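Subject: Sanity check before I submit

Could someone independently write out the structure tokens for this chain? I want to compare against mine line by line before I put it in a report. The sequence has 59 residues.
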Amino acid sequence: MHEVGGPEVLRYEDAEVFGHIAAGRIRIGINQRYALQDAVQAHRDLESRKATGSSIFVV
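---
Independent answer below. Compare away.
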């Protein structure tokens, strides 16, 4: 397994990744959006492989 190197290394790497996201160099596509009350359907979609890529709950 890969070891992160401690919390300070993890914070540095997180800041670097989120900096790239904020600058638009990394884009995260959201393929599905579910209302929180539709969590059961979201789970079914994941199990049946109807959901692809990233899914989020809108609250």
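---
OP: Matches mine. For the report I'm noting this point. Residues 7-58 form one domain.
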